[in-house]
Amino acid sequence: MADLLRKPMGTQGLVHDITPESAGWGYVGFALHRLAPGDHVGGTTDGREVILVLVEGKAHVTGAGQDWGVMGDRMDVFEKTPPHCLYLPGGASWSATAATHCTLAVCSAPASGGHPARRLGPDGITLTQRGVGQNTRYINNIAMEALDVADSLLVTEVFTPGGNWSSYPSHRHDENDFPRMTYLEETYYHRLNPAQGFAVQRVYTEDGSLDETMAVKNHDVVLVPKGHHPCGAPYGYDLYYLNVMAGPLRKWRFQNDPDHDWIFQRDTPAV
Questions:
Q1: Which end of the chain is less packed: N or C, by CB atoms within 10 Å?
Q2: Percentage of residues in the chain with pLDDT exceeding 70?
Q3: How confident is the model at residue 269 (pLDDT cuts 50, 70, 90)?
Q4: What percent of the chain has pLDDT above 90?
Q5: Which of 226, 244, 249 has its CA nearest to residue 29?
Q6: d(Cα 170, Cα 259) in Å, to the nearest integer?
Q7: Kindly report the CA angle at 210 between 205 and 216, in degrees rounded to 5?
């Protein structure tokens, strides 16, 4: 069985620390800190770029030689309001001191030195519907391709209502063959509302060499090294996930599973 489902290491402090080495790939890193008021964390980006995401709560943040003040606004991720985030280039130091109970995600990928430190959100991030029917979900694009703010990183949030599917129809982005497809590793950080719920994520290749279906719970992370990766939220439980993607080219090009592409074709209006 592939080691794709990563459980949190605890309920406070550093609860996830996924590196390219621990994931067995080359680009994406993801760490998660759950902090109490007054807790302090920090680090240096070295040869990697970082996007700090205030998933919920508030923290006083410094980074790249600047004091960014108290960042964060939503106290519960399921408020669905835009997040406060900070982009940091390679070679920068950063620190965060929690002003309230706080969940801080540290998303990272290789840096090439092309972008300066800057705030990302809440201004400019608008909750947007994607999909129709039971495929409806809502997106907060933090740093996707249309926004030229990073060297490698692509970061977004997705809210899926209970009873719905997302990252669906099943799609993959695991070949370096632009413009047909781009190779992007991906992590999913999952949250459930109410918190005792679960969701389902399947990661599979068309040839069946990888086929894992996982019950994901609050604060779990799923690794997607290749293949298709749909998610389903059971009735009664809303699903949130924070996606981090990176690869050799900062573009998101994917292909649907041919068995299920008819759904996309049916639900996409003609231009």
A1: C
A2: 99
A3: low
A4: 95
A5: 244
A6: 9
A7: 100
Distance separating alpha carbons of residues 150 and 38, to the nearest angstrom: 30
Per the CB < 8 A criterion, the answer to whether 243 and 249 are in contact is no
Residue 267: per-residue pLDDT? 80
The pLDDT tens digits for 118-136 are 999 999 999 999 999 999 9
Grouping H, G, I as helix, E, B as strand and the rest as coil, residue 263 is: helix
Which residue type does 119 have?
R
- How buried is 189 (Cβ within 10 angstroms: 0-12 exposed, 13-18 middle, 19+ buried)? buried
Q: What's the DSSP call for residue 206?
A: T
Cα→Cα distances 230→147, 177, 216, 222, Å? 25, 22, 12, 11
Q: What is the largest CA-CA distance in the chain?
A: 53
What DSSP designation does 269 have?
P
Tokens found for residue 269: 């209006």
Helix (H, G, I), strand (E, B) or coil at 220: coil
Distances from the Cα of 172 to the Cα of 5, 10, 59, 132, angstroms? 18, 31, 35, 20
Mean pLDDT, the chain, integer = 96
**At CA 259, angle to CA 128 and CA 181, rounded to 5?**
60
Stated pTM of the model: 0.96
Ordered structural domains, the chain, with CATH: 5-265 (2.60.120.10)
